[in-house]
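During the reporting period the student researcher (J.K.) took over the structure-prediction task from the postdoctoral fellow and processed the backlog of single-chain submissions. One of the processed entries is reproduced below for the supervisory committee.
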Amino acid sequence: MAGAILEGIRVLDFSRVLAGPYATRILADFGADVIKVQSKQTANGTESNTGGYFCTWNRNKRSITLDMRHEEAAGLAKKLVAISDVVIENFSPRVMSNWGLNYKELKKVKPDLIMMSMSGMGQTGPWRNFVAFGSTVQALGGLTYLTSYNKDSPVGPGYSHADTIAGLYAAFAVLASLDYREKTGQGQYIDLSEYEAVCTLIGPDLLNAAAGNPETLPGGNQSGYALSAPHGCYKCRGADRWCVIAVFNEREWQALTGVLGHPDWVNGPKFSTMSKRRKNEKELNERLDRWTSKHSAEEIVKILQEAGVPAGIVQNAGDIANDPHLSERDCFVNLRHPILGQTIVERSPIRLGEGTTPVWKPAPLLGEDNRHVYMDVLGLTEQEFRSYVEKGIIA
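J.K. obtained the following structure tokens:
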């Protein structure tokens, strides 16, 4: 990845599933040499190298195998740490310590090491050893409740938004620590709690509670920053096709009613003002649903946008992959995987200047970089390498 902005930075990646791998993917996308530590025992499910999930979050990385169940594995891991700049892990706090690979020990072999520990609850506190996933901390952190349709149905986002947020925070913290090390020569230990990362997303509601105001209720599809009606998601013609429509002022309302053909019901007292439309939003949405369901999402959005009414298609993955705007901006990269064949991945939305774009590669196969990392980079001899393999340590 010649010219990439993080060229020369080596990251030893012990992380799994989403939050950690997303953080290291960001670093790899910009040229860091990310070495993902795996083993045959754990390379399954979301960590299966030939699965779509794994390939999404682990592009541009190398893969080595190291079975940490063996006592000698910790010594080999420390040798890898000694030639790395950053170590990232997202286990519960006891795991790295049980392997003898906590920051106190690793700092002995690499004094200026930057180590990132991403855990559900953080490294301290009464819940420190609790194992958590994105959906867990989203519920604990208030996000599930606040992103629901109403207080009696805490549906939540439906995906692990907490993991992507934690991954972004982690990547930012590593970059800040690299800058700090460049200025001071000192390493850093970073304790990232995914639970607390979620809590940072509900700041206005925390302030509201601290001020003693009434409880903030889930807003559903309502606008949380401006009075608006209609403001929602509406069924369109076709299987699972939807559009969103938002009206914030009287001009947009008149434009919408014009598109609807000025039906008699729009002139009724229930919909004569914005506040009344908001009060009678349920009936308003039902009437709009009856209209939108007769037309395609593309047709509705085109007509409404031309009339000056904010509207958009609820796009699925197929829509996005064929979006002309994204295509024009080269949003997607074609990568040929040795087993999965031609794959499409999204490019980073962050575009740097000329000469800093890395050449991307697909996610690695299990242990495909063993010889390169252990022999070419770490310096093991052929005999030493074979000995580790025969003992099942490199496996």
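The committee noted the following: The chain has a mean pLDDT of 92.
J.K. will present the remaining backlog at the next meeting.
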